[in-house]
Amino acid sequence: MAPHPLKTRFAPSPTGLLHLGNVRTALFNYLLARQAGGTFLLRLEDTDAMRGHEKYAAALQEDLRWIGLDWDEGPGIGGPHAPYAQSSRGEVYRRFFTGLEARGLAYPCFCSEHELAIARKTALASGRPPRYSGRCRELSAAEAQTRFAAGAPATLRFRVAEGETVAFEDKVRGAQRFATADIGDFVIRRSDGTPAFFFCNAIDDAVMGVTLVVRGEDHLSNTPRQILLLKALGLPVPDYAHIALVVGADGAPLSKRTGSKTVQELRAAGYLPQAIDNYLARLGHTYADNAFMDLDRLAAGFEVARLHHAPARFDESHLKHWQREAVQHATADGLWAWMAPEVDALVPPGARVAFIEAVRANLTVPADARAWARILFSDDLRVSHAAHAAIGAAGGGFFAAARRALETHGTDFKALAATVKQDTGLSGKALFQPLRAALTGELDGPEMVKLLPLIGIERARKRLLEWCENGEKSKE
Ligand code: GLU
């Protein structure tokens, strides 16, 4: 049989904003589909009556697009298996419920929550798995009818054969085996008529042609039940890869406290989508190459076999590393769009490209660009404490020499420094530190060769003049 083309999916429940953990699952599925030239599908799992789910469904689509994860089939795009929101697929699930009931593979269960809770407790206390006892399993159709007629609420349970084993090869965790005796008959439709989450989830994966399900290992215990269902319905069973969850520094699942951020928070903090992609594609997955990559290259090197078994630990310093890389690799237009809200009012239009190329290596967030724009293009220079000390140590004669050199060489920093070196006999740190300190107010930063032309001769002259007298500010 010809191998089927790979089809992966992201199937979020729109109960909140996308955060690092679930966007990583989306990214893995996306990269695998792209790697194989397959299809990446988006499905909204919004069956439960949830508050605000329209808002979250819209937000998560915007977040996915922002981060570059375009889907080939799904909401907003359509496709052969529309609709892609489960809230609109009730008819599909009803058809399968009816089919299962008609074949005696599912039966109504009238046990109350209270009765079930007691049975569960008793089972656990005597060391048995807390599976359903099977009490309503053999109710006759007439008996069930009588209870329905009396208005008794019923769930629909799937009948699980005793004494069998559900086995599958998890693409990350290897061979998995579950005894049906431990599973017991399970609820596929609640007494209010709504389908169970894992029922719709499995049905949709099968009917939408999904061939590989990559999801968090918190769903592993659903998988044997889903396989039983799909087999009973004669539907294709996808491959499964259950990935370890992302944990915080304390080893517990990532939470707000341990650094879990929503995509929107990261975006507001100035993170670039490429930084998030490069970081997350390595969070629980190893590349042969540690270079910064665009999505196509991230996809080309992404393999299920390289996914880790162990939990992936979130480390903000790694995210920051990829952020700096993303800033280095961004186009000038891309960086301008990113920093414009912070610096547009400060940077003269003609100096944009030179400004970006001068400061790019020193930026992590747009606020850093603002600091440099103020230094280069505003008249009130704030001189740091350390810079002040370096200026004081150099003395007024040094700056008089620097001013003369400026008049001779203009903003050619190399020539200016060479002349000051000649005139003062200073070199290395003793030469460069006070020049940088007086001209930028800082001891560190981008290359002066790039900064001085942006500061311009007027401003540079004023800044040097201020320290010409005797190393102290001459006009206060
Ligand atoms: N809607 C489920 C969730 O958001 C999907 C689980 C799965 O990927 O199968 O957790």
UniProtKB/TrEMBL annotation:
Family recorded in the similarity comment: Belongs to the class-I aminoacyl-tRNA synthetase family. Glutamate--tRNA ligase type 1 subfamily.
Subcellular location: Cytoplasm
Catalytic activity: tRNA(Glu) + L-glutamate + ATP = L-glutamyl-tRNA(Glu) + AMP + diphosphate
Cofactor comment: Binds 1 zinc ion per subunit.
Primary subcellular site in the record, as a coarse category: cytoplasm
The EC number(s) this enzyme carries: 6.1.1.17
UniProt GO MF annotations: ATP binding; glutamate-tRNA ligase activity; tRNA binding; zinc ion binding
Cofactors required: Zn(2+)
Superkingdom of this protein's organism: Bacteria
Motif window: 'HIGH' region: 12-22
Entries under NCBIfam families matching the protein: gltX_bact, PRK05710.1-4
Its job: Catalyzes the attachment of glutamate to tRNA(Glu) in a two-step reaction: glutamate is first activated by ATP to form Glu-AMP and then transferred to the acceptor end of tRNA(Glu).
Name this polypeptide is given: Glutamate--tRNA ligase
Keyword Transcription: no
Subunit: Monomer.
Domain Aminoacyl-tRNA synthetase class I anticodon-binding residue range list: 396-465
UniProt source species: Candidatus Muproteobacteria bacterium RBG_16_65_34
Chain ranges of the Glutamyl/glutaminyl-tRNA synthetase class Ib catalytic domain: 6-320
Binding positions (Zn(2+)): C109, C111, C136, E138
Keywords annotated in UniProt: Aminoacyl-tRNA synthetase, ATP-binding, Cytoplasm, Ligase, Metal-binding, Nucleotide-binding, Protein biosynthesis, Zinc
